Every structure is written in structure tokens, then in C-alpha cells.
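Could you help me review a protein record that somebody else here produced? My question to you is simply how this chain folds and whether the C-alpha cells agree. Thanks in advance; the entry in question is below:
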Amino acid sequence: MSTHAKRERLLLADLLEAAGPDASTLCHGWTARDLAAHVVMRERRPDAAGGVLLKALADRAERIQAEFAAQPYEELLRMIRSGPPRMSPYSLKQIDEAANTIEFFVHAEDVRRAQPDWTPRDLDPVFENVLWSRLEKGARLLGRRAPLGVVLRRPDGQTVVAHRGTPVVTVTGQPGELTLFAFGRQDAARVDLEGDKDAIARVRTARLGV
């Protein structure tokens, strides 16, 4: 049975292929090649992937990611599509689904929304609920560096607090858009913001995400 993570994995690979290795992305100023190398490193070299979160490992992660980026682009895409090796924890379906569903969704949008002619993706309600469930669990982590209070709200009124504080900015949108906003893609997310004008300006430039 196909999983959300598997579907997003294949979509990401297709988007990277269509964009080409030199295409811009929304992710840290990386090109599509850099982003592909990051995805491959994360699954095949978890010993180095920790550098994304731990400064002590950052130099090592950058070096190993650069080694992957030097490989032929087609090979990077093949490794993304084929998935992690058996020795990787991501090869377990439960871990793949838990760790990669949002990872691949966000990175797919990093590729799509960096293109000038992108259009919103129509997500099915089941997947929107999956994204919302993950957002409910991870909102505090994603919003921990916000300089003020941030509340995420679905159009149906469901809310989750990403950061406690004052003043408060309420961000309203579909779960997919809220996910992108919470992962630091504020400018690319199609959301409505309510609150003090200065507070809204601050949350738009805040360092959100992991």
C-alpha cells in the first residue's frame, strides 16, 4: 500500500527532475542539486545529517552533502526514488511515514514555489488532516524562536499554539499552507495574518522551523 511519504517522495523527485539541477529553491538558497543532495544525505548518512540541527556537526554535514552534490544529478534522483538502503532507519515504513511525510511535502513545495509560474496544489482532505495532526504535535518546536505569540488556525476554527507570548499573531490557512509557514516559508505560504501591524511584520521575518 502506498503511503503519504512514498507519494511525496516520488513527487519531489519528479519536481526536481523537471526543474533541473541549477533551478532555485526556497530552501536556504540551495539549488535543486543541493536540495537533492541534502535529501540523499539525510537518508543514507544519518551520522552526518544531524548537522542540520547540531552546530557541532554542521561542517561535517556540509562536506558530506557537497560530496553527494558532486555526483551526477540523475543518480541523486535515482537514490531519492529508490528510497533509503535497508540499514537506514528510514527503510522502516513507520519511521518513513512519521519522519518523511512533512519533510518531502515541504521540500516539494520548495521546488514548486521557487518557480515563477507555480500554482497552488490541491491537497485531498485526508492528507490535509495528516499535515494538521503532525503540525499539532510539532508546532511548539517549530515556533520556539518566534519573538511573540503565534497561533495557527484552520478555516474551520481548529487552532494550535506555536508560541506563547504577547502580542499575538493568528495565522489562518489550510494545513498545508500553515505547515509551510511554520517551517519558515512565510513568504511562500498563502495564509491570512491577524494582529498588530508591527507584530505581523515581525512574525513574517521570524526564524521559524527546525
Summary: The chain has a mean pLDDT of 92. Residues 93-112 form the longest helix (20 residues).
